[in-house]
């Protein structure tokens, strides 16, 4: 009689039960995760957060920087309902997908590594200089101007190609990026601090 | 002369050869566009507007995913009749699926190259690109892929139902349900990027780190029986052990992709713990292959295939196992996620785990197609396969090391010191160690390309000058009795 661990039928049953067990646990966790990460719940903000000012500050209790949503800061001067904000963010996300942004950039750290991560793009200090370069007076206007004609405002050897982004698509992409920057990403990317130069 | 003669093969084996042929052509496309993408790091203005990096990378990676899938389909078709003991069910349908899938792949690649992008609406997602890394194929192609996968599944399941149902066929059949089903998880649009990436990883991770690994386990099990004459009981038991370890760790190991995408905190613990266990089945695979090789004193019927199988077990362990483990814990991943660390892992893991399982299956198919000729010691032109394997291994390890150094520079300069701003990103990208690593990556890319060209030449030429019949192994039953 072979010991249990050498028997084929033991490992067959183990394979079935372990796989089924793990799959059931994953499905249960998926229901829980979906409920806790829909827009406006858990670490994911409501779409209407684009009407507000988003900051990024150190949280002593969690020992990491986290998004902080403060007073009103309308995007392109327009207050949107949750449904309107969702529609605008969705248009932005569809544009991001239609231009293959993820195959040069990363979103939440996923994608390609040829261009900067976009997770906290809205908060990046880079845009302060870009306002001068694009001759605009707000962050969102600078971002939209850059997206429409990236090669006009190149600051690096790696120039973003012209992607035929229309003005309405550019505004929608800015809305998507502002919303995404308010997702609490557990401190990712490491040490990101939009106020580093001020400090 | 032992020219390739398809009349020596049954209909299924002929279909497998068609899949293998397209697979190797796409492997060439992967290498070509990989070299272009690598060059764009070194010379950013190269084809900057005509074929930007996003497109060269899409074709590089999509060609890889598709050629490996073609290789898997070809491998399964190749072993199906031998494993089931009956002629395969549904040959015409299987051939139809091959031509449909290949036509779809050609159209998708032409659209990637010449249309590239579209306006930000649903039509672009349906007709041009879905714009989600690895699975950029537009929705119409997704539907075509699912139809072809269902036909493939029908061929496999109906054949096993009609013939012998072994341990390998049982695992294979169930694995293919999961493989086809999981693709559906990537076929719907979501505004919420946290949800979008949650389901996207179901396709990417649960394919690559679960169902593909199990599929590879099935192919390797059949391959070891064929090439070494290993007893069925041994390979089947090991296959079950690998399923336990692979899916026991890999299903919840999925959580290591959920650390930073807005999911609940428990994924940090679950993902970290289970993904850290993922190398264990790969250690088991190394033990299994070393044990079987020793047991049979390395006596085998096809030296190139055997060498590639050995490369597979080692490559899978180091590439997928060690390289993956290095950056899987959240404390480390916070600094490495989204840097060239991942590209380093990707290169060595995909070559080590998957290229090295498809190539030996092609060698086994060619051996039979050329009249079951000798492919043992003293094989005419053996230098070609030896150098093809050596150059590809050297090229892969070299590229992985260069990308790892580039990744280290990013982790330190961009993340730890620079604070992950865009300025810090470009500061890291222009660091001498980073740029030197990217230049050296091209050198190893050239070495790999030479290995690919030599492989392609060898696949055309191997066995053609041979007149000796293949070495006969003792029948499996006798081997069992002797053991």
Task: For this entry, give a set of tags.
heterodimer, A: 199 residues, alpha+beta, Cytochrome Bc1 Complex, Chain D, domain 2, 2 domains, two-stranded antiparallel sheet, 5 helices, 11% strand, elongated, B: 483 residues, mainly alpha, 17 helices, 76% helix
Largest β-sheet summary of chain A: 2 strands, antiparallel
Strand content of chain B: under 5%
Structural class of chain A: alpha+beta
Order of strands in the sheet with the most strands of chain A? 1-2
Shape of chain A: elongated
- Major sheet characteristics of chain B: none
Explain what you see.
The complex is a heterodimer of chains A (199) and B (483). Chain A has helices spanning 8-36, 82-98, 126-134, 139-148, 167-181; strands at residues 52-59, 64-72, 106-107, 110-111. Chain A has 199 residues and is an alpha+beta fold. Chain A has two domains: 4-36; 47-181, Cytochrome Bc1 Complex, Chain D, domain 2 (Orthogonal Bundle), CATH 1.10.760. In chain A, strand 3 and strand 4 (110-111) form a beta hairpin. Chain B has a domain at 1-164. Chain B has helices at 11-42, 53-84, 91-114, 122-127, 139-162, 167-184, 193-228, 232-253, 266-277, 279-295, 303-326, 330-336, 340-369, 382-417, 422-429, 432-461, 476-482. With 483 residues, chain B is an all-alpha fold. The longest helix of chain B is centred in the middle third of the chain and has 36 residues, at 193-228. Chain B is globular and about 65 Å long. Chain B has 17 helices and no strands. The chains are: A alpha+beta (199), B mainly alpha (483). Chains A and B meet through helix 1, helix 2, strand 3, strand 4 and helix 5 of A and helix 2, helix 4, helix 7, helix 8 and helix 9 of B.
Concise synopsis of the structure shown:
The complex is a heterodimer of chains A (199) and B (483). Chain A is 40% helix and 11% strand.
